[in-house]
Write a structure and sequence with these properties.
- The protein is an alpha/beta fold.
- The chain folds into three domains: about 100 residues, Beta-Lactamase (2-Layer Sandwich); about 190 residues, Rossmann fold (3-Layer(aba) Sandwich); about 160 residues, Heat Shock Protein 90 (2-Layer Sandwich), CATH 3.30.565.10.
- The strands form three sheets. Strands 6, 7, 8, 9, 10, 11 and 12 form a seven-stranded mixed sheet that branches.
- Helix 8 runs antiparallel to helix 9 and helix 10 packs parallel to helix 11.
- The longest helix is centred in the middle third of the chain and has 89 residues.
- The termini are far apart.
């Protein structure tokens, strides 16, 4: 045994230490052991290479001391040139590596209790004392010491900074959202206030509109009532003045009568214009379109202005052609009457021409005059309310400038075109264009040729006059008697029927007021008188009621209408048509 231990130069050999002392054992076991040792060496080198070249930091440390070992990545992460420098510098892990001591104490306690922790985010001190944010995984190694740990460290500074920036952006966004929300709430509050104010204003406006409508209705009622009350005495005055005008008066008195006639004409036209413009403003004037023989109606209208032309010393010519149109007769007559009145008012020499020209499916009514003319830049202004041209004749009647405004508005209601052309000092032409209708055989029979022959004289013609106004009844009787008529005046239907009993034969014509006493209408009185005598006596209604309903009713009853105050020339033309 001693020789065996001394046989070697160097004492015990590896085989001896491993229990392989004999030659045969060394030959059998040494190659396998060598292979195992080589494999362990290769494994050790591989782990060493991974340890030294790892991207994340790896270190071994004592929780009560400092770092025991670390890889280069850990040194770089903490800002040191080498692992040795980091190991030398950090000998107190708690104060020198961790930025927050309280956090280190919590980690240490958790390691002692649990044995490990994973991916804990914390903050380490760098060599320059700046912080570096890391995610550290710690494993306790009690086999190496009671508080020895191994750690794997990843740098998460960029992630923390990105998260911090995101939190800042979120905070800024929340702040902006709060500011925008506050601004929106303020805007909403302002909007609600504006809506409340607008609703309040709209409510007040509705109240104001209703008040205005009520005021307009009251105005219309007042105008209707006032017009009837005003037109009655005005009608009596006109008839009296007309009777005086037909008398042989001295020159001065005759001049005064003519002046009174002009004043009455002005008052009548002003009142009629105010009533019409009020209806047009309220859109209360609705057209009642019927088929009419236009030439016949224009012939009757021309008869009214023959006396006007004669008194003014002007020539008045009419050119008509048989044609039919469908329109509101009352409104069309009002338009043409206003145009003719203006033509005579502004013409001092020469004359006026009213012509009718069929053009395809349209009919054009033209009124020419040789008057003062209108400047071109004034042609649009003449249709404005209360606008009129200055009248050179100081004795002429001016009016208030509503005639052409009424013409334009009535033309719009009828759907007609109004045109005007004029030359200063040469005269003007006003034209209104209406759609033409072509009558059936039945309508042609109902539209006879106009009666051209007038009654030569009213002498001996009996006329029954009914009116509940004594002044109107008296003035009408005086005027008709001056024309040669035998007049039978009656204040009521009963009085008229009593007169019929004392008459040798029925009257040649009846002129009745529309509104009689006790709510009796003149049209009904005419109907009962006709029944009593058994004959359809020619009759007409004279009224101050200009409402559309009344005119439509009388039109349906085929009774001609003459509005108060009555102009003598219109009364003469009406009576002439009844007696003819």
């Amino acid at each position: 045994m001693k020789k065996h231990f001394e046989s070697g130069d160097s004492g015990y050999e590896v085989g001896d230490l491993l229990g392989l002392g004999s030659q045969s054992v060394r030959k059998n076991y040494y190659p396998a052991l060598q292979d195992r040792l080589d494999e362990l060496e290769r494994e050790r080198n591989r782990y060493k290479w991974l340890f030294e070249n790892a991207l994340h930091g790896i270190f071994q440390a004592n929780l009560r001391g400092g770092i025991l070992a670390c890889n280069p990545a850990m040194a770089r992460l903490c800002g040191y040139a080498s692992p040795e420098q980091l190991i030398t510098s950090v000998y107190r892990l708690r104060e020198q590596l961790f930025c927050r001591v309280a956090e280190f104490d919590a980690i240490r306690l958790e390691l002692l209790n649990e044995g490990s922790l994973s991916a804990r985010e914390t903050c380490f001190h760098r060599a320059d004392n700046s912080p570096v944010y890391v995610a550290v995984t710690l494993l306790r190694r009690p086999d190496l010491g009671p508080e020895v740990v191994e750690a794997f460290v990843a740098d998460i500074t960029e992630r923390v900074q990105a998260r911090t920036r995101l939190e800042q952006l979120n905070a800024e966004l929340e702040k902006r959202v709060e500011e925008r929300t506050a601004a929106l709430q303020q805007v909403n509050a302002d909007l609600r206030y504006q809506i409340e104010e607008r609703e309040k204003a709209e409510h007040e406006l509705v109240i104001a509109v209703e008040a205005a409508k009520e005021a307009n209705r009251s105005k219309d009622k007042y105008l209707a009532a006032a017009s009837h009350d005003l037109l009655q005495p005005l009608n009596a005055a006109r008839l009296m003045v007309s009777a005086l005008d037909d008398s042989n008066l001295p020159r001065q008195e005759s001049h005064m009568v003519k002046q009174a006639t002009r004043a009455l004409d002005g008052a009548e036209e002003l009142l009629a214009d105010l009533l019409d413009i009020s209806k047009l403003d309220q859109q209360a004037m609705k057209p009642d379109a019927v088929c009419i023989c236009l030439d016949e109606q224009l012939s009757g209208l021309a008869g009214e202005f023959e006396a006007v032309a004669g008194n003014a010393g002007l020539d008045f010519r009419v050119r008509l052609a048989p044609v039919m149109v469908k329109t509101d007769l009352h409104m069309l007559t009002r338009i043409l009457r206003n145009l003719l009145s203006n033509a005579f008012r502004y013409t001092f020499e020469g004359g006026v021409l009213m012509g009718l020209r069929p053009r395809g499916n349209e009919v054009r009514i033209e009124i020419w005059d040789t008057g003062v003319g209108i400047e071109r830049d004034k042609l649009n202004e003449i249709f404005m309310e209360f606008h009129q041209l200055p009248l050179a004749d100081q004795g002429g009647r001016q009016g208030v400038g509503l005639g052409l405004a009424i013409v334009e508005r009535m033309a719009k209601v009828l759907g007609c075109r109004i045109e005007v052309q004029s030359r200063i000092g040469r005269g003007s032409v006003f034209a209104i264009t209406l759609p033409r209708v072509y009558p059936s055989a039945q309508q042609q029979q109902a539209c006879p040729e106009p009666v051209l022959n007038a009654v030569a004289s009213f002498a001996g013609q009996t006329v029954l006059v009914m009116d509940n106004e004594p002044a109107v009844l008296e003035s009408m009787q005086i005027l008709l008697e001056r024309w040669g008529c035998r007049v039978f005046p009656a204040k009521s239907e009963v009085a008229a029927l009593e007169l019929l009993d004392n008459m040798e034969q029925p009257p040649a014509a009846i002129l009745a007021d529309y509104h009689l006493d006790q709510g009796i209408r003149g049209s009904d009185a005419v109907h009962r008188i006709r029944q009593c005598v058994g004959k359809k006596i020619p009759a007409a209604i004279i009224t101050a009621d200009r409402s559309d309903a009344t005119l439509a009713l009388l039109r349906n009853e085929k009774l001609p209408v003459l509005n108060k105050p009555v102009k003598p020339n219109r009364l003469r033309a009406l009576l002439n048509s009844l007696l003819a």
